[in-house]
Amino acid sequence: MHEVSSAVSNITRIPPQSGVAFRLRAGEILRICDPMGEQVADLFAFKDGEHACSLSSGRSIDYASKIYLSTGDPLYSNDSRVMFRILEDQVGRHDFLLTPCSQEMFEILYKHQGHHPSCFENLYRALAPFGIRPEQIGTTFNVFMNVVVAPDGTVAVKAPTSRAGQYIELRAEMDLVCGLTSCSAENSNNGSFKPIDYEIISGR
Amino acid sequence: MHEVSSAVSNITRIPPQSGVAFRLRAGEILRICDPMGEQVADLFAFKDGEHACSLSSGRSIDYASKIYLSTGDPLYSNDSRVMFRILEDQVGRHDFLLTPCSQEMFEILYKHQGHHPSCFENLYRALAPFGIRPEQIGTTFNVFMNVVVAPDGTVAVKAPTSRAGQYIELRAEMDLVCGLTSCSAENSNNGSFKPIDYEIISGR
Asked: CB A58 to CB B139 under 8 A?
């Protein structure tokens, strides 16, 4: 279902449990909106034309000295260039620790049998036409995902704090190829599957 | 200095601010020892002969549901296969959030001017003879690195808790190519630069 999307004015809707890929030019703003609340969107990105340069959780967290990135924070590439800057964030809680949900995750963590839609599959299928291989997709910026780290290091996935209509805006700081999903994992969106909306806005 | 190492019995010493790379066969045990205390060793690994399969912080943390991995915990690849299992851990505090220190890190975080030795450079130089490119090196397992996450998400690098002679043992669960460093960053080893020792032990 990753290729299915329906345009409503300038907003594109990503149906539940699916994903898309698109180019974003330097200066353009990507607005990612949770139209119904409590849904997660996994974002990954490459420098357009230079796919060895890709989004890096480890570098972004290191340079920000915090795991929760929000308004004003840059998202870095693996070679320490700024790929995005968060311009506005109405939610303030996103995860940058966990990899996108995958077939193997559902089997390992939840003993799921048979095929399960996943952000990882939706990302690599959507990004394949851009010449990107699955192993090039690392830890995603998990928009609206609410992951809490206890003092002993225990990680818990909580219901997103996003309410219907809230959004985050990220400005591209270089030409990018982006993959974006509406998350397929029951436990990251409080047991429901919902769409994600996104919009590409000219720089301002 | 990454290629310089001196053998003492079966123990190989990695001089301060340098790195090595080596093969580890499935079943072999890698013992990483902090000979003087309060030093960090960055570890990264690929499946031998299949470099698209590499160490994944995001998958390992997700499947363990914790950020601090220790005795008994597996370390996963990006395609969700077990690469290592921690057999023994005398320290109990290692970081899996931050990327290896790099030239750019010293410039961005510490305004350093001129060349600075770094784990990232030491890793990619040591791994280059195995056909591995710099961009294939992701977030390392930062042995003995003491990174604390506050409830608000703030990340602080503290002095390692490792005392002289303490070690961790990891068993290879597949044939691997490993890169390993003695860390070059002042702030991760309490202001000093020290060696790291390692030993490859036949399976038991």
From this structure: yes
pLDDT tens string A67-86: 999 999 999 999 999 999 99
CA dihedral A9, A14, A19, A24 (to 10 degrees): 30
Q: How far is CA B62 from CA A146, A198, B164, in A?
A: 13, 27, 31
CA distance A84 to A81: 9
Are B149 and A149 an interchain contact pair (Cβ–Cβ within 8 Å)? yes
- Which among B45, B28, B36 is positioned nearest to B14, based on CA atoms? B36
Reported ipTM: 0.92
Element (H, E) at B61: helix B57-64
- What is the distance between the alpha carbons of residues A126 and A17, in angstroms, rounded to a whole number? 13
Question: pLDDT digits over B54-102, tens only?
Answer: 999 999 999 999 999 999 999 999 999 999 999 999 999 999 999 999 9
B contact residues 96-135, partner A, Cβ 8 Å cutoff: 97-99, 102, 104-105, 108-109, 133-135
Task: Indicate if the alpha-carbon torsion angle B23, B29, B30, B35 is positive or negative.
Answer: negative
Q: Is A66 on the interface with B (CB under 8 A)?
A: yes
